[in-house]
Design goal:
InterPro entries: Bact_polysacc_biosynth/exp (IPR050445), P-loop_NTPase (IPR027417), Wzc-like_C (IPR005702). The protein is α/β, with parallel strands linked by helices. It has nine helices and eight strands. It has an eight-stranded mixed beta sheet, with helices on both faces. The protein is globular, with a radius of gyration of 17 Å.
Length: about 220
């Protein structure tokens, strides 16, 4: 997983010549910034690998920070985190959004998996009210979760899959855009960046996923 600064997105997508190393300084800056607590992982379109990237980022933050990390599944994809970890019947995010006392139900919804060094909040059980309550309830839910976790990493829907992704992007402390090598067109990625900026999202950077190296990776450092 390679993470890039926001001012490198255009260069990366327009000219696939310069191979950039994983941005450890970005991760360090995020860890040291006390105001950066909620991070949304999204992509221009589905299939970019946001769930894999969210898992990797949550793991890195767990190893790099002293506080606890929570990974939230906010994507209804059938290949999402909830399905992958067989938590389809467990209460989760959607249940907390319709609850009048989400802080009292956290222990019922937050799950611990033996293969994960961080906690996981599954999508939960769909409700006819959940989407309508998103705008009103999500900030209160973040505040409740913030008492227990240093970082809240959110695996969100793609920018072009749902308008709720843009709404959520405006509520979190930072957004990371996932682009997939040899699949995401740079025009689509650039348009997604523009939509996020128009939504007043704080775009921290991007993750270049599934990069293929046609020559040994170490040689790119000398090109």
């Amino acid at each position: 997983m390679n993470m890039f600064r926001v001012n490198q997105i255009g260069l990366l997508l327009e000219r696939d010549k310069q191979i950039l190393e994983a941005s450890e300084s970005n991760l360090t800056t995020t860890v040291l910034n006390p105001e950066c607590r909620t991070l949304l992982i999204t992509g221009p379109s589905s299939g970019c690998g946001t769930s894999t990237s969210a898992l990797s980022l949550a793991r890195q933050l767990t190893l790099s920070s002293a506080g606890k990390v929570l990974l939230v599944d906010a994507s209804p994809s059938p290949q999402g985190l909830t399905a992958s970890y067989k938590m389809g019947g467990a209460p989760g995010l959607l249940d907390l959004l319709v609850s009048s006392t989400p802080h009292e139900q956290l222990s019922e919804c937050v799950q611990q998996h033996p293969d994960l060094p961080f906690d996981l909040l599954p999508l939960g059980l769909p409700s006819s009210q959940s989407k309508y309550l998103l705008h009103e309830q999500i900030q209160r839910l973040f505040e409740a979760l913030g008492h227990h976790y240093r970082f809240i990493v959110i695996d969100g829907e793609a920018v072009y899959s749902s308008s709720y992704s843009l709404s959520l992007a405006a509520m979190v402390d930072g957004v990371i855009l996932v682009v997939r090598g040899e699949q995401t067109r740079w025009e689509v990625a650039q348009a997604a960046v523009q939509r996020l900026r128009q939504a007043n999202a704080n775009l921290l950077g991007s993750i270049f996923n599934a990069r293929r190296y046609y020559t040994p990776k170490w040689l790119y450092r000398y090109l």
